[in-house]
Design a protein that fits this description.
Elements: E1 2-12, E2 15-21, H1 31-37, E3 40-44, E4 47-51, E5 55-59, E6 62-70, E7 77-86, E8 94-101, H2 109-115, E9 119-120, E10 123-124
Antiparallel strand pairs: 1-2, 2-6, 3-4, 5-6, 7-8, 9-10
């Protein structure tokens, strides 16, 4: 693997996306298959994690691998949660509002809010 890099923003709740390119991918019989079989060793929070890519695809004549790894810095909190109850009778939907906090200044708060799941009355929403 070469040019493996971490995206500057969180991908989803507790997830960071990393991308890199397979070395010598063109010389292999099946570069995409090779991509899925060759792990990369990450060092996260002082621990080594070896993982095969979650996604492999062609990118400008090279094979790009994409990994999604857990990231404690991508766990925003919801506070001041207000449960307004059902929005329409028999709709099955509840209206819940909350404030998204504890995210980085460059993060997409709207995206992370959609991936955050509050626990209310022992139910995950």
């Amino acid at each position: 693997w070469t040019d493996v890099s971490e995206d500057p923003q969180c991908y989803a709740y507790d997830k960071k996306r990393y991308t890199g390119f397979l070395k010598d991918g063109r010389g292999k019989l099946d570069p995409l298959r090779t991509c899925y079989e060759v792990p990369f060793k990450f060092v996260l929070n002082g621990q080594e994690v070896e993982k095969k890519p979650d996604v492999c695809e062609w990118d400008g004549g090279r094979v790009r691998g994409t990994w999604f790894l857990g990231a404690p810095s991508c766990r925003p909190l919801l506070q001041n949660i207000i449960d307004y109850g059902c929005i329409e009778s028999e709709s099955g939907y509840r209206r819940i509002e909350a404030e998204v906090v504890d995210i980085g200044k460059n993060e997409d708060w709207y995206r992370l809010c959609g991936y955050s799941s509050p626990l209310l009355s022992n139910f995950h929403y």
